[in-house]
Every structure is written in structure tokens, then in C-alpha cells.
Design a protein that fits this description.
Layout: E1 2-3, H1 12-22, H2 25-41, H3 45-53, H4 59-64, H5 74-82, E2 90-94, H6 99-105, H7 108-122, E3 124-133, E4 140-147, E5 152-157, E6 160-169, E7 220-223, E8 228-231, E9 237-239, E10 253-257, H8 270-292, E11 297-301, E12 329-333, H9 339-355, E13 359-360, H10 374-384, E14 386-387, H11 391-419, H12 424-427, E15 437-441, H13 450-462, H14 468-475, H15 481-516, H16 522-529, E16 543-544, E17 552-553
Parallel strand pairs: 1-5
Antiparallel strand pairs: 2-15, 3-4, 3-10, 5-6, 6-7, 7-8, 8-9, 11-12, 13-14, 16-17
Helix pairs in contact: 3-8, 8-9, 9-10, 14-15
Length: 557
């Protein structure tokens, strides 16, 4: 629904039409698709695998296959690999603001990581910034929460359909039925995709912590730049501020979207979700075929034989027959299912799905060897796939939107602080809603071994690009400058002590060598002390020549 201006929201008839549109089949299908993506991301793929299998087999067969049902978290692994904006860290600066403390208190980095993942998952994600009470009565903090698309609706701006005039928060419960097991169909099969749904809810909002699907209030929370109120399903206002005005004068939402094409809700991403379901369905078939056809099928022939048998290593089977009757036979028949071909089919599909989503499989073997369990091998293929998306393209979306988020955060922070409702831990902190935010994302470092890292540091040291102090800072990043300097002092002192010890040992070894040399007796040493070479007769005036042949050499005059 498109409105010309937000003042139209004050009309109960308009609000009722908006709520009726929220309950339309088209909008329910949109939310059901968004909910399916979220469920698969949260490791609930097996429910949708059953829905796919029941299109192929009868309900009784699908129930029998439950033991072999695969639930590999394919979608989560891929999404987490693609969502890398905040994976390597981020630094924020805002002059005159305590933003470094606030981002930790509000757990901003985790909220932004989740936003990045939800954006990759659903192509749309709304960051909801609003006050939330603490355990201390009368105190509140500012909470930042990413929302997946099934949790909210929007009214588009006339002429700018990619932007929201108003956000509406409401309950959502999957309306695919409440069945917890597949019911046999009269025709044996069904073409309906709603044959089975996750048993996530009993439809009752319990007093204890309960499923989100049961938390129904029947209320619709409207937010626009000027207005904020809560109304029922007839469009009548039942809650919110008395004046129905937005206290911060701005919608408390930041819209993150990829690939919008003239409409608010972006399209795309179905291949990953449907592919994850299909891969698990194919693996389920492989598991079921391998197990059921791995057992031999008992075949007994003869006359008047029992219809059922209990067999096993501790069971004896007795076959009797009368004279003239055919001799009974008792044997097991074995099949030879093409398991290798089926496994190769799954691997091929996984590889194609990864490469078409810019995930490289170059580091993965083209086929899995027999020493690796099949599901584990597929998981390994996913795990080793590397994203080739340009992370700078993703970062730009967050560089553009984070300042908007902090501006809304600052408005709530200032409002709660002025009312004396801000928590004590945050009341002393400041943030300027008009301040310029500087965001610096940390670039990923190439993977290197410990030996390679040390070799690089050594080469830099040899080229006088870094000092020993720099090397220690790299080795001990958690130490401050004083601790690193003290560590360097300890290393140098230990190195000096080792050098002195080695020098003393070398001197001792040289003394031992001199004492053990031929002619190295006391007389020889005394002669050298008197300036008489070894081997010369001190009673004569000459000295032996160097050739040692006994001929005297006259003394120099």
C-alpha cells in the first residue's frame, strides 16, 4: 500500500486497510518464504526436506525414512562465509563521543555481524533501535536488534518505493498447519508443499519462556518519522504515547537492502535456500538406499511354509516338507545400488551451487575418497570453499548506513538521559547525534604458518624495517608498551648471560687443548716465558731452525 504522506496514518480507515493488506495471501507468502529462510539458517532444514520428499513418495514411506533424514547446515555455512564485513574487526571514531565504550555496552559489533548475515540471507534486513528496560526499575538502555523480513511490514513512499514511509511490527505464526507427522494421503502422494510444517508451536502463549511463534499480542506497532502508536486488528489505537507522536522525530529503523529493483522488498537468494533443502533431500535418499538395500532380502520357497520368520545369529530356522513336496529353499538376495553415482551427483550439485554463488572450490578435491564419511565429506567441501565476493562492495552498504544507526542511537540516548531514565552505567557517557563517524574496517590477513610468519618478521628485521621491539609487539599483541619493553630486557639479559657462559667455556677448552699438545710441558712453557722457543738449548747461543733438523741458526747481532 502506498500513502501520499504520513498524516494519513491518523485515519482509522486507512490503518484498517493497511492491517488487512498485512493479512493478504500475497504478504503471507512473502513472510512464509522469509520464515523458511530463517528456519533453514537456524538448522531446521529437515522439516522442509520432509515437505520435498512427500512430493516424491507416499506419506508412509516418508515416515519410514525419518531415521535417515539429513539436516546438514548448508545454508548457514554459506551465508556465514559470504557475510564477512565485520569478520576481521572494525574501528570507529567520533569526535566528542564515547563511542568506543558505547559500542561495547550496546554490543554493536555482534548486532552488525548478525545484520550482515540476515542481509545475505534475505536481501532485506531492518535494524531496530529502541529503548529497553533493564532489571533495575526505572532504568533503560538503548537496544539495537536486526529483524528478518517476516517480523515487519512497511508502507512505501509514493514515488520512492524503495524507501519506507512507515514500519509496522506485528506477530507472525506460520500458517501451514499444525501437523507434527505426515498423514497418509488417499492417493499416496501430494503435490502440496504444505504437507508437513515444523512442530514449533502449539498456538498457546505459555507463562514460561515459549516459542516465538506463540507470542501473539494481536497488536500492530506503527512507526513513522512523526507518529508512533499501537492499534488492534480493526485499526483502533490502543497504546503508545498519549499524543501519538514519535519522541525522537525519526523512524527508529535503518533499512539494509541488496538488489532492490524499484520496490522495497528485494528479490533473489532462493537458489541457496532451495539448494540446501534439495542437497539434504538427496543425501537422505542416499542414506536410505544404502541402509535398506544393504540388508539382504530373505527369500523362502516351498510348500505350506510360515509367512513370517525371525532370523539372526542365535536363531535356527527349521524347514519341513512331505515326501513328494518341492524341497524348500532359504536364501538372502542382495542388491547392488549405484551409491557411488548417487554420491557423485550430490557432490556435483554442491560444487555447482557454491561456484554460482562466488564460492571457490579450488581447494577441494573433485571427489571424496572412501576414508571420509559421505555427509562429512560434503560438509568439508562447504567448509573449505572460499568466498570470492568483493568484501568492499558489502562494506559500502554498512559505511553508508552505520552513521544513520548511530544518529538514532544518539537521539534515544539523549532523550533517556534528559528524562533520568538512562542506566547508571551509560548516564556518564556522551554521544553527539550530529558528530561525524569514521569507520575503518580491518582487512583480512592471508593465512600463513607460524614458520612463514616468523620468517617474514626476520626478513623485516634484517632489512632494518622493524626493531626487536616491533617483533615482540607482533608476537604479544595483548601486552602494552611497558610490558613489551620489559620482555625485551629479559630476553637481552638472558642472551647476554648465555654469551658470557659460552665465552668462559671456550676459554677453558682452549686451555685444555694447550696442555694436551706435544711439547706443551712445563719446561716448554717456561722457555716461552723467557723468550726461548720450544726445542732450543738454553745453554747455547743459537736456536734451532724452523725445519727442526738440529742445525743451529746464529743469533741476530
Amino acid at each position: 500500500m502506498i500513502l501520499q504522506n504520513e498524516d494519513q496514518l491518523r485515519d482509522p480507515a486507512i490503518r484498517k486497510k493497511i492491517i488487512e493488506a498485512i493479512g493478504s495471501s500475497e504478504n503471507k507468502n512473502r513472510k512464509a518464504e522469509a520464515y523458511k529462510r530463517y528456519q533453514c539458517y537456524k538448522d531446521q532444514t529437515h522439516f522442509y526436506v520432509r515437505n520435498l520428499l512427500i512430493r516424491q513418495f507416499d506419506a508412509n514411506t516418508v515416515n519410514e525414512m525419518a531415521y535417515a533424514l539429513s539436516n546438514l547446515s548448508f545454508l548457514r555455512k554459506v551465508i556465514d562465509k559470504k557475510a564477512r564485513v565485520y569478520s576481521y574487526g572494525v574501528e570507529r571514531e567520533m569526535e566528542g563521543s564515547d563511542i568506543s565504550v558505547l559500542e561495547k555496552e550496546a554490543d554493536i559489533n555482534n548486532a552488525m555481524k548478525k545484520t550482515n548475515r540476515f542481509l545475505e540471507l534475505s536481501k532485506n534486513c531492518a535494524l531496530y533501535i529502541r529503548p529497553q528496560p533493564t532489571d533495575i526499575e526505572g532504568e533503560q538502555v538503548v537496544k539495537v536488534t536486526p529483524l528478518v523480513p517476516y517480523l515487519y511490514d512497511v508502507v512505501e513512499i509514493a514515488g520512492e518505493r524503495e524507501r519506507a514511509l512507515c514500519y509496522i511490527l506485528s506477530d507472525y505464526s506460520p500458517e501451514m498447519g499444525r501437523a507434527q507427522a505426515v498423514r497418509p494421503n488417499s492417493d499416496g502422494r501430494t503435490s502440496s508443499p504444505m504437507g508437513l510444517v515444523p512442530p514449533i508451536s502449539d498456538g498457546i502463549d505459555q507463562i514460561i519462556a515459549d516459542s516465538p511463534a506463540d507470542q501473539k499480542t494481536g497488536q500492530f506497532v506503527f512507526w513513522s518519522n512523526s507518529y508512533h502508536f499501537v492499534c488492534d486488528d480493526r485499526g483502533q489505537i490502543i497504546g503508545g504515547p498519549n499524543d501519538q507522536l514519535n519522541p525522537i522525530g525519526e523512524k527508529p529503523f535503518v533499512n539494509f537492502a541488496k538488489d532492490q529493483d524499484g520496490t522495497f522488498w528485494a528479490q533473489g537468494g532462493d537458489d541457496l535456500v532451495d539448494g540446501g533443502i534439495l542437497i539434504n533431500s538427496m543425501i537422505t535418499n542416499v542414506n536410505h538406499i544404502a541402509i535398506t538395500q544393504g540388508y539382504g532380502q530373505l527369500v523362502v520357497t516351498g510348500k505350506d511354509l510360515p509367512q513370517t520368520y525371525k532370523v539372526g545369529p542365535n536363531k535356527a530356522v527349521r524347514l519341513t516338507y512331505e515326501e513328494g513336496d518341492p524341497v524348500p529353499t532359504f536364501e538372502f538376495k542382495n542388491s547392488n545400488p549405484p551409491l557411488d553415482q548417487l554420491r557423485s551427483l550430490v557432490e556435483m550439485y554442491v560444487a555447482l551451487l557454491l561456484t554460482t554463488n562466488n564460492l571457490s572450490t579450488s581447494g577441494v578435491q573433485s571427489n571424496l575418497n572412501g576414508t571420509i564419511a559421505f555427509p562429512s565429506g560434503v560438509a568439508m567441501m562447504i567448509d573449505k570453499a572460499e568466498s570470492m565476493d568483493d568484501v568492499n562492495d558489502q562494506r559500502q552498504i554498512f559505511i553508508d548506513n552505520e552513521p544513520h544507526m548511530w544518529r538514532i542511537y544518539a537521539k534515544w540516548h539523549s532523550l533517556l538521559k534528559s528524562r533520568g531514565e538512562l542506566s547508571e552505567a551509560l548516564s556518564s557517557l556522551n554521544i553527539d547525534e550530529s558528530g561525524d563517524l569514521i569507520i575503518k574496517f580491518t582487512s583480512p590477513k592471508p593465512i600463513e604458518t607460524e614458520r612463514e610468519r616468523l620468517e617474514v618478521l626476520g626478513m623485516k628485521k634484517d632489512l632494518n624495517l622493524i626493531t626487536m621491539l616491533d617483533m615482540l609487539k607482533a608476537e604479544y599483541p595483548d601486552m602494552n608498551d611497558e610490558q613489551v619493553a620489559e620482555k625485551l630486557k629479559e630476553i637481552l639479559e638472558e642472551k647476554m648471560e648465555a654469551a658470557v657462559g659460552n665465552q668462559g667455556q671456550q676459554n677453558n677448552e682452549q686451555s685444555d687443548d694447550s696442555a694436551n699438545r706435544p711439547g706443551g710441558d712445563i719446561d716448554g712453557d717456561q722457555r716461552r716465558d723467557r723468550g726461548v722457543p720450544s726445542g732450543a738449548d738454553p745453554s747455547q747461543g743459537g736456536v734451532e731452525n724452523e725445519s727442526g733438523d738440529g742445525r743451529e741458526v746464529p743469533e741476530a747481532q
